[in-house]
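Input.
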Amino acid sequence: MFARNKFFPKFSKRLFCSKSIKTETKYQKRIFSGIQPTGAIHLGNYLGAIAQWVKLQDQGENVIIAIADLHSMTLPHEPKILSRNIQEIAATLLGCGIDPNRTILFQQSKVAVHSQLSWCLGCICTMPRLAHLPQYKEKSQDLKDIPLGLFVYPVLQAADILAYKATHVPVGEDQIQQIQLSQDLARMFNKKFGETFPIPHALTTGSEYARLRSLRDPSKKMSKSDPDHKSRICLTDRPDDIVRNIKKAVTDFTSEVTYDPEGRPGVSNLINIHSFVTNKSVDDICKDAKNINTGEYKLVVADAVVNFVTPIQDRISGYLSEPQLLLEILEQGREKANAIASKNWDEVQYKLGLNFKVKAAKKVKVCE
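Output.
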């Protein structure tokens, strides 16, 4: 086994609604989530997802995290860039506190059950059902020729979850629809072929940190797909870039530092960021900033963010300098994930009629 990761962030904030996570008693409580290797992780990704996973891990929950490389292929990609991104996302997750001895961390494409189960679920899912999904409409609207993978990727997403009989899936409040198909397909399969899967529940984020806003347009969430890099803070950004981006963050014409998410979304977004990285309350932050203007406050936030991400960056760099260790960690995770998924896949095959059981032949006594 690998030595425990040296760094685990201490989160005293309530990051998600986990009040006694309940599930059907016949199924082991299991939490599944995934992250696409499509570029640098920004602070919104970290606070909205990775910090949740670390919190769940530290609470002793049974957590499985997939690096969703198959999902990252739904749109055109460069193989060399994808390969590098897989290494970087693995290093980032470990650097943020994911412990491979307590959380199963693996590369999705290395466990064949994901693709196998996706095909089987696709055979009971209808095209109109997929066409009505908001994610498909959003991602396909600017494409002339729509890849099949983009159309059916929600089925693969359902397979990711059901392959492990996951009972809970951490999602933001704006992402609940993403697991509804998984719930529907689990019910359809159970009704048609017999009780097999638990109905996965959304483990929703209950925090203002779950959806950090763009630094350039507070009406939008922080996103790595935004072409303007100044709209976000990435965990791997240099200190100078972090300071520059926060200094250029859109606020308003009021110089006082006050918290009003509806009326002053830009300043409130900076306060939320500051609150998380320092573990200070919003009230305390506003009191401390009562004698400075928003321009001066931006420098305070920038300094706090740099202090927060620097140790994470050091650990990420350490893992990236040891690619063999990364491979070993992902292989260890693959073995654990495959053991769970393969057992469930055997059951699915039997329910579908893909496997058959042979009764042991009766022994015939030979008369002498």
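The first strand starts at residue 31 and ends at 35.
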